[in-house]
Amino acid sequence: MNDMKKTISIIVLIICLLPLQGIAQNGDSEGSGISVGGGLFYGFEAEQAGFRIDGTYSFTDKVRGALDLGFYFPESGEFDKVKRFEFNLNMHYIFMERDAINVYGLAGINYFRFSAEFSGATTFIPGNDLFMQASPVEGGPPPMQNQSMPPFNAAPTMSSSEFGFNIGVGTEYLINFGAIFGELRYSGLGGDADQLVFGAGIRIPI
Q1: Which pLDDT belongs to residue 76?
Q2: 120, 23 Cβ separation under 8 angstroms
Q3: Distance in angstroms (rounded) separating the CA atoms of residues 138 and 121
Q4: Which of 197, 203, 188 is CA-nearest to residue 49?
Q5: Residue 26: pLDDT band by 50, 70, 90 thresholds?
Q6: pLDDT tens digits, residue range 50-59?
């Protein structure tokens, strides 16, 4: 766990230092600015959609920092209520510009949090890593996502969180008042919440 924290600290330091080099080399760049926006996303391992709040800061015409907050739509059932949240801090590098279309690569860190509330007696079924399900005790054994991990009695509430790395690609279509974007990234690399995530939305310069 300590090694993981050290690695994440190094990544954060690199993310903070790279833009400074770009600023030093491109101090007069006209591409600097802030954009804010939002949209929707879907986690393929969680099999759940959500909405995101998005923001970018352009250090140069090619390099920018980006952060987004992702809130998965809550899952509610007869026996449980599951909530998921993620925070991403990335760097974008625009490697292709064609007319009104930009294509960029991204890399950074991901923080993922999972929480569940239970009503009544339940058996908690570990799924794939942090993507879990809850099922009633009675009525026969529920289907398990991971047969190597046996069920266990769950407390009324539980939560867990993970850090990991992001890597992916995105594209933007420039419009009069901003840009429509789409991103495909692999989130949570190195942690227990790794999954493919697709997001789309709109960013508006301010």
Answers
A1: 66
A2: no
A3: 9
A4: 197
A5: very low
A6: 999 999 999 9
Residue 199 dihedral angles phi and psi, to the nearest 5°: -135, 150
**Angle formed at CA 23 by CA 19 and CA 89, multiple of 5 degrees:** 20
Strands (E), 156-194: 157-175, 178-189
Q: Is the pLDDT of residue 107 over 60?
A: yes
Q: Cα–Cα–Cα angle for 182, 50, 91, nearest 5°? A: 45
Please give the domain boundaries of the chain with CATH numbers for all domains.
2-24+34-205 (2.40.160.20)
Phi, psi of 88, deg, nearest 5: -125, 135
pTM of the model: 0.69
Say if residue 169 is exposed, middle or buried (CB neighbours under 10 Å; 0-12, 13-18, 19+): middle
Q: Partners of 51 in the beta sheet?
A: 40, 71
